[in-house]
Amino acid sequence: EDRDAQAELWSRALRGEVPYDTEFRICRPDGEVRHIRSFAFLQRDASGTVVRTVGVNWDVTDAQRAAASLRDSMARYDELVSRLPVGVYTFRLRADGGMGLDYVSNRFAELLGADTESLLRDIQVAFSVVHPDDSSSLQDAIARRDEHNSWEGRVVVDGNVRWLRLDSDVTVCPNGDAIHNGIAKDITDRKRNEVLESRYREDLEIEVAARTAELRDAQQRYSAMAERLQLATDAAEIGVWEWRIPQNELIWDDRMFALYGIRPEEFLSAYEAWSRALHPADKARAEWEIQQAADGLSEFRTAFRVVRSDGTIRHIAAFARVVCDADGRALRMVGVNHDITDAKAAEQELEKKEQRWQVALEAHDMGVWDWNVVTSEVVFSPRLLTMLGYRPDAWSSQLREWVARIHPDDRVRVSAALRDHFARRSTRYAVEMRLLCQDGSYRWILDCGKVVEWSAAGKPRRMIGTHTDIDEQKRMEAERSRLSAVVEASGDLIATADTAGRITYMNRAGRRMLGIPDDEPLDATHISDYHDAETFRRVAEVGLPAAIEHGLWFEDNDMQRRDGSSVPVSQLIIAEKASGGSGAIEVLATICRDITERKRAEAALQEREETFRRLF
Length: 616
Fold this sequence. Notes:
Strand order of the largest sheet: 5-4-8-7-6
Strand content: 25-35%
Largest sheet: 5 strands, antiparallel
Shape: elongated
CATH superfamily of the largest domain: PAS domain
CATH architecture of the largest domain: 2-Layer Sandwich
Number of strands: 23
Radius of gyration: 43 Å
Low-confidence stretches: 77-82
CATH class of the largest domain: Alpha Beta
Distance between the termini: 31 Å
Structural class: alpha+beta
Number of domains: 5
Number of helices: 18
Mean pLDDT: 86
């Protein structure tokens, strides 16, 4: 594949058009392909005819392979360094109380909804977006001079509230200034989940307590109604009626007239008076039920709606007994009516609340448990079991079903959290743990709950809680940790800088290569601090523009150590653009590999080449 090109090059060299300096491949007898670097000196006579050629060939296969390996390595590292979602900043609290931002990354400015220039020019631009309720805690954090500082709070950008976490290392300068070098992370999703979890736990407790109270009230009302229907003694709440069947004569008391909204003088005193008041949708059923009772085929215990003369609809509960003659013929029916409209409305409202509660749980994929602490009986919701791969009815109602599936390494922590809550050292119980799934694997679960019933002696009697699947969240946390470990474990220099050229990160291998202590902050240093003037000029005028245009730039360069010496490197510069399609550069990254040995080998080859030139 290289023959024609080499033949053409040789012909041009013979004609004096170009020097003979090239690379080509050769195939050895054993089939191995090697890369050869070749240089030739052509001696000519007075007429320009080539009378003698002297050349030198040397094998550069290993260097070619090393370069290919480096390109592959750079591609892998490109993936790693692109995952930098945090904003970087340097904040200065001056000794005289003044303050300002010495540096902010584009991501930091994006988090605050501002541009870097305005933030650097006026610190109030940053403070102006801090939520009023969190401003005081931010000022307290700024005033602290702890070695490591952190703050969580809200910012309001374009009307949207976002949660940020600031983590910084604080350095106190000899002049009394406190320098905060830190990163800013958007933790809105985490905070939103925490708020939702808290809100739904509170709503769950309120709904359960309200439902329990409403059910208790409804039960009491229904019990009282049954007594009144049986005894027919509470004329204020119960209407009493009698239907004399052979005569078709209907007799109502005053309460019945009030229930049906009919004046006594308008009453027909017949079965038709009751039938006419029935709601059209209930009429056929109610008439059939009363006829079945009159025929002795069933008991008359029912409920129906009536339409009053003013158009209002009331729900009525009815009960009656049939009195028969000696031959079993129905003579009369005596019964009671009770207005249950309010109870029906309460029941319907209770059903709506229960539906809302169920929808809320399903929307957030939560399983619910209700634990009788005294008897160790637990009611597990179907979702609690299905999220672990079990059938909804796979577990019994005993606490041991749940305990047996807790990961052995988590049991002590779970028990401690429960003890703290039972001892009222915590307002709620919350713990992350792993539970055994049907397939034998474990899933991470956020288990939250609260005691809703205590004994007179202060002992827990009943506890209600939820399970939330956080397995994916845990896997993502582990993946981020692994990626960080890979970068730190690399033997190559890996570093990042902002678009102004300020260094924002350098791994341990890079610090060792350049003689920088591991604990020395680098955010006050610039790309130019790590190159001599000529190399930095080439990087600034050629490398960075190429990386910005094409995404990356690769070339051999020299890095400058802290002691002033230089180290030759193969350098890859990557320009990472911000998400969103704006095209703006968000971060600059570089990966450098020490090529000292390779350079020595190349120098030796060059020296031999010069020797040949001098000889010939």
